[in-house]
What we know:
This protein is mainly alpha-helical and 295 residues long. It has helices spanning 9-33, 37-41, 46-95, 102-125, 131-140, 147-166, 170-195, 200-216, 226-251, 263-277. Among the domains are: 7-41; 73-198 and 260-281, no CATH class. The protein is built from 10 helices and no strands. α1 runs antiparallel to α9 (226-251), α3 packs antiparallel against α7 and α4 (102-125) packs antiparallel against α10.
Amino acid sequence: MLLAKQISITYFLKLIKWDVLAIFLYAxxxxxxxYLTFFKDLTIPLSVSAMVGTLLSLLLAFRTAQSYERWWxxxxxxxxxxxxxxxxxxxxxxxxxxxxxxxxxxxxxxTRQTIWCYALAESLRKCxxxxxxxxxxxxxxxxxxxxxxxxLSAHAEQLRAxxxxxxxxxxxxxxxxxxxQRLTDSMGKCERIKNTVFPRAYSVLIHFLIYVLTTIFPFGxxxxxxxxxxxxxxxxxxxxxxxxxxxxxxxDPFENKPTDTPMTTLAExxxxxxxxxxxxxxxxxxxxxxxFYIM
Length: 295
């Protein structure tokens, strides 16, 4: 996730550098050809460019709003995961009867829930599993293509065993089951966002209109000074390109990029909270990196 107080302009410029270069070269070419008789007499009313720009602005506004909605939904889902993880352990502390093994069971759930958060983040980002997750899965003696779902199933199996062992009250069983269900729902929502591709045709249309505007805009400008014409013919289309690229960055919040939902940071927060609740050693927070984002 990008940090509000420390955003790298260089990172963003690298994403649009080829578009900026193409637009600038085209503006220079039109500015040079404008001195030829044919191109000097060729004019396109500025109202045509204004009409294309208005249409493009409407499409970009819709695109940006939809992309931000996907990004914000992902952040809300992970906020719910933080709350539900704490709630699950707190319910176990409250509902399980005092017994010699109570603290052991709570530690098992806290550890498994922590691993679930890391496994879900790695699954969504399609990145290699961390050593911490691999070691825990090896201890389970079984593996799955969907590790987060496997860990939630382990939660459910142990809850069933504890319910039989301690004959838990039905209301307590329902509350514990609801916590597992909410975690399952959050996982499913994340997978829906990850696997739902934003319509490609919409992106192609916007990009096509940007280059249509780039093509016709210089012919509607006054030719009093070639430098001003080149600057305007470059800056205006680049602004649209920048808005479009911003929408593209936000529409996929689980792609292991600086604009991602900070799942790793949230998982570390969950780990510290759960370890504290289970009276286990709390891992030291990682030193802050001098970067413009957190993951």
